[in-house]
């Protein structure tokens, strides 16, 4: 599993999301996900939204995924 594949899955599953994924060993990853759909949601709900985009890969091909989930406003991103 590559970070780029995970990024693509997250961005396809959360329309309008932008993800930056890192991971050197192919099973442990870190991701920053910026998405308008996170507005008004608690961190656990945001994480579940991201996990849903990855389905059965979580706990399988992806052993661990450390997430930071923010809205564009929280990230300080203009025009997002």
From TrEMBL:
This is BolA family protein. PANTHER family: BOLA TRANSCRIPTION REGULATOR, BOLA-LIKE PROTEIN 1. InterPro entries: BolA (IPR002634), BolA-like_sf (IPR036065), BolA/IbaG_stress_morph_reg (IPR050961). It comes from Lysobacter brunescens. Gene3D superfamilies: BolA-like. Belongs to the BolA/IbaG family. It comes from the Bacteria. It holds the Pfam family BolA.
